[in-house]
Amino acid sequence: MREQLTIRDFSTVEGQLTTVEEKDLPAQRLDLAFMPWKPYTEEQKKSFACLLDEVNVLNIPVPKSQAEEENLVNRFLTGMRKLFTTDNNFTCLPMLETSMDNCVQCNSCSSACHLFEMSGENEIYRPNYRSEIFRRIYKQYIKKEPFARWRYGDLGLNWKTVARLGELAYRCNLCRRCAQTCPIGVDNGLIAREIRKLFSQELGIAPKELHEKGTVLQSRVGSSTAMTPQVVKDNVEFIDEDYSEITGIEVHTPFDVKGADILLLHNAGEIIAWPENVAAFSLIFQEAGLSWTLSSKCAGYDGVNYGVFYDDAQLARIALMHMQAAKELGVKKIVIGECGHAHKALTVVADRVIPYELQTPRESCYVTLRDIVMSGRLKLNPSRNDFPVTLHDPCNIVRLMGIVSPQREILHKIAPKFREMPCHGVDNYCCGGGSGFAIMSRNNIEEWRGNISGRKKMWQIGEAFKDCLGPETKKYICAPCSNCKGQIRELLAHNDLYEKNSFAYGGLVELIVNCMENVNPGFIKWGEE
Amino acid sequence: MTTIFYLLAYLSFAAFLILCVSKIRGYCAASPLHVRWEIYPVPHEGKKAAYGGSFMENSDWWLKGRHVEHIYDILGIFKEVLLLEATFKHNHKLWFRTYPFHLGMYLLMGGTILLFLTVIAGLLGASPLWNPKEMGGFVTFMHNVLNAVVLLGAFCIFGGGISLILRRMHDKGLAVYTSREHYLNIGAFVLFALMTLAAWAFNADYIQVAAIFVHSLLTFSCEPLNNVLFELSMFLGFFVMIWIPLSNMQHLLLKYFMYHDIRWNDVPTPASEKNQQLIPELLKKQVTWAAPHIAGDGTPKTWLDVAVNPDNGLKK
After folding, report:
1. In terms of residue numbers, what domain contains A232?
2. How far apart are CA A445 and CA A456, in angstroms?
3. Does the beta carbon of B315 lie under 8 angstroms from any beta carbon of chain A?
4. Does residue B184 contact residue B165 with C-beta atoms inside 8 Å?
5. Residue B130: pLDDT band by 50, 70, 90 thresholds?
6. Which of A174, A195, B17, B188 has the least CB density, counted as fewest CB within 10 Å?
7. A98 with B178: Cβ contact below 8 A
8. Which of A85, A104, A129 has the most B C-beta neighbours within 10 Å, making it the best mutation to test the interface with B?
9. CA distances (Å), origin A212, targets A204, A218, A525, B293
């Protein structure tokens, strides 16, 4: 591997372009173990383009002939041309074009990126590296600027460039922290997503977890978890039974109540992986006396919309299904549960994609919960939460929607030992599972999340609890987002931090229920409890 | 030769205007309505902007009317443009090099506007800046101010520009991304500043020469300047003027849109009847993406067809 990669190396270097070794990784306050990369097998190298680093998200087949190589490049260029037309890309064209034409390469974005920092400043993870390659292709082959080759340097576009670029689009959490710091307004996160779009919408290449097992499955059966409406209703009924016993309060989750005020839209992953979250919502809404319901209509019970990570058509389809579920029930608003990307997809992005008459207003659950907690409708005893608590800010809800204060108002009211992480609020860092990584587990993706993308979050957590690290003090990481919880769960488990540091993690609602006076004590569990 | 010089001045100014207008029109034509892509903090949120909050922190916000304090957007962009605030916050080392460079440009641009205004005032009856024998009162003051502005502006561009070039050459990270065009862009400004400094230093009265030039431009009199250094600096100025909208320096124009129309554009559809009407129109646009889940059976489709028929992509 080369010491300092150049732009041209992206097209010319044979084999794997770069690697990240344990010695490259910055030191941490928490004891984080390096997860060794599993080497590619010869079969993998022969079949798929293993050309970037140790990770392979897209599994792009290796072309078998020069004609196939050329075909891949030509289809890529065709897609790129479409990306720069209003008809095919009215959703994002102004942002894309300005990000192509106005970057002055000051690299202010680099220090904002947790991937660049935590990979030991590996060049390919610099936010601008991917963007600049895409930009040079655009200027030379799409826009055909005069003297482009002389002005910007000849990239030497070939199939390796295309395959690597597609793969590199999946080394970004789309947290847009880099865009926030850009003095001009260039958005490297957007560029990464546009490249993903090009690959999905033109070449039909997307990670199977996002496409086949994600949006396609959700469109067909109702959820990316594969749960059908009947399975969801059965599972929620079980959750109600279990948590009625655990909490000492009869919990009933309503389904398909026509004319209810609120349609609560969970990430269906919660029903499988974190039933306590679903139960806590039901309990709080019930005890607060809200008029609310879940939907059992196809996709109406799963707020997930992976289209927001890679494909506009899939995004629109899923968003439309969510809106239709709300319209059929005639609710006044959709309250989105603890899922960051569902918040942004349905509230912000779909806002200018779905015709207005088909829309139902959307509200963040943080806001609804804040109103409930502050209204005094629940009898709360904050002394039950007498342990250090810190808050993770999901990028999609905080930096990209500006919902910063409600969750803090709740925590200040119910968690006497609440403390902020360094770089909190709109300056937060991604958990490392953002943009779909949290649901992928193959080809060293878990290792990449553990070694690189999740490392900055672990630094923040370590700093937030630096006065009480160790197993003696129980500590709670409040991560009110399904994907973020999945990522934090894995990092804690892999590094044995439940035991070493008495960490527990969960959402906001679990903390609220934990301090409800009429609920049996001990809703939140630590370690072996 | 004099006529050609003046002709070039008119042409370069016209080209600059046409290119600027076409860039802005191109931006506006790219999409009548793009998706919301805001990043917080958004200044027009007023008090909430201090911590990055938005209207979406309020329950039932769509029922409560939209309260936007645009004055903070204006203050925000002024602070960003005049002080390069984001660079100061996130790239401190670069700020100390790029700020003088930008400040120099602002000084020369401001100086040029002042020069034109003072000459126009002379044409309307005030004492003439282009004739030192008749100059007096406030115009003398303007003459001295302009002298200082040109000197300081050219020094800032020269010093900042050299410093930026050196950083691009020696910073390992920046060097990877620095192309010939970067050197051309900054180099052209440095050369322009150098020639301006030379013209200023080797002329008894630089401002008088500049005033004669502007007076001739405004009156179409094409008076000969007989000043090689000034004319050389102006040739470089003409080139830079045309080059700005053709290169990444066009951010001078588009930064406004990148902030106001993208980063801070949070207008929700319930609050905009115009947007409510635009969405169905945009969904009528033809889609030609080739992936099977969009192209389906190959029949022509609009975005509406694609969105309302999820089965398109599901049937193998």
Report:
1. 221-370
2. 17
3. no
4. no
5. confident
6. B17
7. no
8. A104
9. 11, 9, 35, 10
pLDDT at A115 over 60: yes
A493–chain B Cβ distance below 8 A for any pair: no
SS3 state at A475 = strand
What's the mean per-residue pLDDT of chain A?
96
CATH of residue B223's domain is 1.20.950.20
- Residue B39 counted as domain residue: no
Q: What is the pLDDT, as a whole number, of residue B297?
A: 87
Amino acid A218: pLDDT: 96
**Per-residue pLDDT, A94:** 97
A351 and B269 within 8 Å at the Cβ level: the answer is yes
Q: Per-residue pLDDT for A529 more than 70?
A: no
Could you tell me how far CA B32 lies from the centroid of its own chain? 22
Q: Is A156 helix (H, G, I), strand (E, B) or coil?
A: coil
Chain B contact present for A518, CB below 8 A: no
Looking at the predicted structure, is the pLDDT value of residue A320 above 80?
Answer: yes
Specify whether A233 is located in the same domain as A361: yes
Whether B154 and B203 map to the same domain: the answer is: yes
N- to C-terminal Cα separation, chain B? 72
The CA distance from A311 to the nearest CA of chain B, in Å, is 10
Per-residue pLDDT averaged across B75-90, rounded?
94
Q: Which of B269, B270, B307 sits opposite A316 (nearest CB)?
A: B307
pTM of the entire predicted model: 0.96
ipTM: 0.95
Secondary structure of A261-330 as H, E, C letters: CEEEECCCHHHHHCHHHHHHHHHHHHHCCCCEEECCCCCCCCCCCCHHHHCHHHHHHHHHHHHHHHHHHC
A34, part of any domain: yes
The pLDDT value given to residue B315: 40
- The amino acid occupying position A404 is V
**Average pLDDT, whole number, for chain B?**
93
Task: Say whether both A18 and A166 belong to one domain.
Answer: yes
Interchain pair B313, A95: CB under 8 A: no
Cβ within 8 Å, pair A351-B58: no
Residues A359 and A386 placed together within one structural domain of the fold: no
Q: Is the pLDDT reported for residue A35 higher than 60?
A: yes
Q: Do the Cβ atoms of A320 and B308 come within 8 Å?
A: yes
Q: Does residue A363 belong to the interface with chain B, where contact is any CB pair within 8 Å?
A: yes
The answer to whether position A383 is within a domain reads yes
Q: What is the mean pLDDT of residues A315-341?
A: 97
Residue A494 has pLDDT above 70, yes or no: yes
Asked if A94 and B52 come within 8 Å (Cβ–Cβ), the reply is no
pLDDT, residue B127, reads: 87
CA gap B40, A398 in Å, rounded: 8
Question: From CA B292, how far away is CA B309, in angstroms rounded?
Answer: 13
Mean predicted confidence (pLDDT) in B235-242: 96
A439: number of Cβ within 10 Å? 21
Residue B196: domain span: 2-31+84-246
Q: Say if residue B13 is in the same domain as residue B144.
A: yes
Co-location of B287 and B143 in the same domain: no
Number of domains in chain B: 2
| pLDDT of amino acid B314 | 41
Say yes or no: A182 contacts chain B, CB-CB below 8 A: yes
Record: contact A86-B30, CB cut-off 8 A: yes
**What's the pLDDT at B135?**
79
Task: Estimate to the nearest angstrom the gap between the alpha carbon of A116 and the chain centroid.
Answer: 18
B18 and B126 belong to one structural domain: yes
Determine the 3-state secondary structure of A363 from DSSP.
Answer: strand
C-beta separation of B252 from B244 below 8 A: yes
Separation between Cα atoms, residue A79 and residue A214, nearest integer Å: 23
Bridge partners (DSSP) of residue A262 are A292, A333
A189 close contact with B: CB closer than 8 A: no
Average pLDDT for residues A37-48, to the nearest whole number?
Answer: 96
